[in-house]
């Protein structure tokens, strides 16, 4: 069965003003369907276009937000690079300060014979503030930093941290060595008779030749006499072991302490002995009381330092008081 599109017509009537004639249009069904289809297509295209425009606007807004976030992130990272650069400078100052402290430790411990004649120069990067002034102010002109400058600063900061890491490792090794040497030096000082044996520093007779106080003839004095009061404490001048205690008509009550490297100290004319042979004593321990026993004209301490069995001048060893030790 065939449709006869040409036989069916549609009449469109246009009625203008009352004074004008009616206008009639006759179109076939096929043309009407085509027109309706075209209208539907245009409407669909318009709807799709509106939807695409809306979606495009949303994408555009999202892109703008992403771009803003990206710029903020870049700015934040740039500020972090600047902060890291400042921290690197502060770390450099700290490392220099640590080096100075190590140098001072070596000097104090007599580990470094080199002497520095130059003056200390303040290290750039160390900022001090007065708490009474509150938070310190900062300022300057608004000169923006370019991306290229920030990238260059970041590279320099990375290089600084790498260099600091190497220096810190070297400092750790150096400090361990310094600590070991300082410990050895401290132990050496503990067994070296550097302490004054009495609370007084009044010397009544020095080491060397003198006129004998009993015979008035020239004689050799093998120690130093300290004019202390009777029963004043007598101190061990170094760590050691008591190897002899006793009394005789020349030395009176006396104590001999053995230290290290062939050194011994001898304390004479004591009123009382407070240690026994075989005792281990520490530097600064009270080992006896000042007296005038034996060949003596009055209360005093005769103090000797013997090196490999020979009496030597004690004066070079008297470097520390009890407070300094």
Automatic annotation (TrEMBL):
Q: Which SUPFAM superfamilies match?
A: Duplicated hybrid motif
Q: What's a Gene Ontology MF term here?
A: metalloendopeptidase activity
Report keywords, A-Z. Answer: Coiled coil, Membrane, Signal, Transmembrane, Transmembrane helix
Pfam families according to UniProt: Peptidase_M23 (PF01551)
Q: Where are the transmembrane segments?
A: 29-52
| Positions of the M23ase beta-sheet core domain | 220-314
* Family annotation (CDD domains): M23_peptidase
Q: Which residues form a coiled coil?
A: 60-104
Database matches in InterPro entries: Cell_wall_metabolism_enzyme (IPR050570), Dup_hybrid_motif (IPR011055), M23ase_b-sheet_dom (IPR016047)
Name of the protein this chain belongs to? M23 family metallopeptidase
């Amino acid at each position: 069965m065939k449709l006869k599109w040409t036989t069916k017509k549609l009449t469109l009537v246009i009625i203008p003003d009352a004074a004008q004639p009616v206008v009639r249009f006759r179109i076939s069904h096929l043309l009407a369907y085509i027109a309706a289809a075209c209208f539907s297509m245009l409407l669909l295209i318009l709807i799709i276009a509106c939807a695409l425009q809306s979606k495009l606007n949303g994408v555009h807004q999202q892109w703008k937000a992403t771009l803003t976030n990206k710029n903020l992130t870049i700015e934040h990272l740039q500020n972090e690079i600047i902060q890291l650069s400042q921290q690197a400078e502060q770390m450099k100052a700290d490392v220099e300060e640590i080096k100075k402290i190590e140098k001072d430790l070596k000097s104090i411990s007599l580990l470094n014979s080199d002497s520095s004649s130059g003056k200390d120069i303040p290290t750039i990067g160390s900022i001090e503030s007065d708490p009474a002034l509150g938070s310190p102010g900062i300022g300057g002109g608004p000169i923006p930093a370019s991306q290229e400058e920030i990238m260059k600063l970041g590279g320099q900061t990375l290089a600084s941290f790498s260099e600091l890491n190497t220096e810190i490792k070297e400092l750790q090794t150096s400090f361990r060595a310094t600590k070991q040497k300082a410990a050895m030096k401290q132990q050496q000082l503990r067994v070296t008779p550097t302490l004054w044996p009495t609370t007084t520093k009044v010397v009544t007779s020095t080491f060397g030749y003198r006129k004998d106080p009993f015979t008035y003839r020239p004689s050799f004095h093998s120690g130093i006499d300290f004019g202390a009061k009777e029963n004043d404490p007598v101190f061990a001048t170094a760590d050691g072991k008591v190897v002899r205690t006793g009394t005789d008509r020349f030395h009176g009550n006396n104590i001999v302490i053995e230290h290290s490297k062939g050194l011994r100290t001898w304390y004479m004319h004591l009123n009382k002995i407070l240690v026994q042979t075989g005792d281990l004593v520490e530097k600064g321990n009270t080992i006896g009381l000042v007296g005038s026993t034996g060949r003596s004209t009055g209360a005093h301490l005769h103090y000797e330092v013997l090196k490999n069995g020979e009496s030597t001048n004690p004066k070079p060893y008297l470097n520390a008081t009890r407070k300094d030790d």
